[in-house]
């Protein structure tokens, strides 16, 4: 077969882009070479609908072992009784939980998208806002912290069937125990979406959601540094509260409902090559190297936030406890959109983001979000954060000045040579 030169040329170009630039997108990371090798491997050819030992296809003995290994390692990482590693993405993991728990029209309560929440937590452009009656809590205007009083008030008022905690652009830890109290009071379930800070939670650097939240979902490709994908976990399985019974009249456990929701509920055949890569990444997370990495991600985020504060940038909530920060650019007279566009010209990638109580649209935005998961994988330490804040600041303060941006880009490219990416490739 003829080599597909146009695509392989583009792959080489993308590798070069990743190598030479500074990656500050909070939801991105660089997997290890062995994670990528597992991803680009033979199980991509295999159909395996079902679960290990209970497949709808023949020849699944080997992929069963892979999936079991992924499940066992994930259970070990978070000390959980139940894990499903099949969701194709974070959004699929959340959709499966919703399908397992909710009926169309049921009420859910999540963090508003414009305050840092995620589309799948009830946004009206997402299935979660179309199929269910979505209600929202927010953050406090004065300090950018989650407004737990508002959450409690809304929960008591609307009596949702599910409360969702977790966010895409929130730099602080969560008080899971407090939310569980009100969930118990109104008789609903509590789900945490830890897509962003999962790696820090895995190493005990943030509060543990598992004792308080009935169900926990995550992506695998952000701080967890695995392949793109989703996972669903429970520390303890429990009888589903709505009394669904199986054929023998036994009440089904939540694990059964969740498994059924992933397949056949919302997905067909699992991506077994990605599950193999998840297993590799989970093995890495269990290592001491990853423990050091997670600590460094958090230290770098704190150093980067301090470097921006020193340059009079306004960080929502005043700082960070995890791997990311959201900056309100209004005192710098530049929109998130313009900032993103100027930075990309200097080969610094970051994404525009609405800030709480934003007066600009989601397309323009007043904010920008930075994260340290990817640059820490490149090998950067706290002292390097000064350089990062300096180049970002120079671009944002000279966003129309092509000569300055060109000069910064050269500095960025030279700086990144110190941090080789995939030297084997
Ligand atoms: C909190 C949260 N949940 C879910 C997702 C969805 O993940 P995916 O893009 O893999 O569907 C994201 C992705 O940004 C996220 O930030």
UniProtKB/TrEMBL annotation:
Task: List, in alphabetical order, the GO biological process terms annotated in this UniProt record.
Answer: glycine biosynthetic process from serine; tetrahydrofolate interconversion
**Organism for this UniProt entry:** Haoranjiania flava
So what does this thing catalyse?
(6R)-5,10-methylene-5,6,7,8-tetrahydrofolate + glycine + H2O = (6S)-5,6,7,8-tetrahydrofolate + L-serine
Where do the Serine hydroxymethyltransferase-like domain residues begin and end? 2-391
Q: What is this protein called?
A: Serine hydroxymethyltransferase
EC numbers for this chain: 2.1.2.1
HAMAP family, per this entry? SHMT
| EC main group | transferase
| Residue positions, PTM N6-(pyridoxal phosphate)lysine | 222
An example molecular function term from Gene Ontology annotations: glycine hydroxymethyltransferase activity
**What are the names of the required cofactors?**
pyridoxal 5'-phosphate
